[in-house]
Write a structure and sequence with these properties.
This protein is mainly β. It has two helices and 23 strands. The chain has a 22-stranded antiparallel β-barrel.
Amino acid sequence: MRNPLLILLLLPIICSCRQDTKKSYKQDFPEVIYSDSLVGVIQTIEERSYDFKLDSGQIIKLGYYGFGWDSKYKVNQYGKWEYYINYSDKGAIKDSTFYAYSDEQVLRKRTRVSNEETVVYIYGIIKDASSWSFDSNEEVLLKKTTISKKDTVINTYDYIIGSQVQMREDFQNGSLVTTEIKSFDMYGNLYHEKEIGPFEIIFSQTYYETVGESRLKVRSEDRFWVRKYQYNKNGDVIRYEKYGFTYPELITVKSYEYKYDSNNNIIDEKQYTKEPWDKKRELDFRRTTIYDNHNNEVQSTYLDDLNRIKWRYTTDYEYDKFGNWIKKVRYRDDEPYKFSERIIQYFRTE
């Protein structure tokens, strides 16, 4: 499933509220809070996964699932993140990210806390710098402070904004470490960006083209990989190639091919590898996927190069009245192995 959290489907409703109140948040704030448009709009989701057993058809939790990606997040009534928490397989908090905004809902601060370090990001408004923006306004990163047990590293960022060339300089503890350059055509379309290190060494660069109504990357390069992308008319990747050096002047090619249904869900995925000494590429795996009417994955089948089934995963869901799943059970070859549940809070439920 390409968009596992259905809040992403509901955020346009929130965003429409935000657009209507953009000129004066304080004045229209009560109207937004009590608007019927917020019925069924998610405020928080907490998702946890467990090992379990079935006892007379009942699910008995045995402990947290060892390979889970448990999380909890909260957004405000304008669709902006308030916090995001990740949990470890022991159930403890792994890392947390918190967001702070101005009254106009402009991002001002983002703080990420983990066992290894604390990173604080400070944002500000720079006119005509929206291509560098973290959020939907023109807020850009001005300062990043990384605090670990060993030391504290401070990165500051300077912007040079032109009509066809924009630059961001990254200073680490006062010394310039990288410069990012974005180039635009005469119509304001981004067509190239690159990152330069000391002695004008190019760390990476990316090329963009117009696909349908979107501006999408078609090629990217760094010191280790070259990547190429092809899209359908909806802007979905249908082919992705990755070239990497195995020995000097020898190249390994990884390629991925995707097919989609009418809801832009991936229904067929193939991965190939071609080593320098191979005459043709070899199929690593193929996966076909079936979705329910909520666009949640209910079956995924892994096939080998002879189209024989290797594994089959299925999922059973229980939904709330808004169509968001609150319980699911995962099976591998008809054997249950993972139980997940979500606690969802809405701004309004009726």
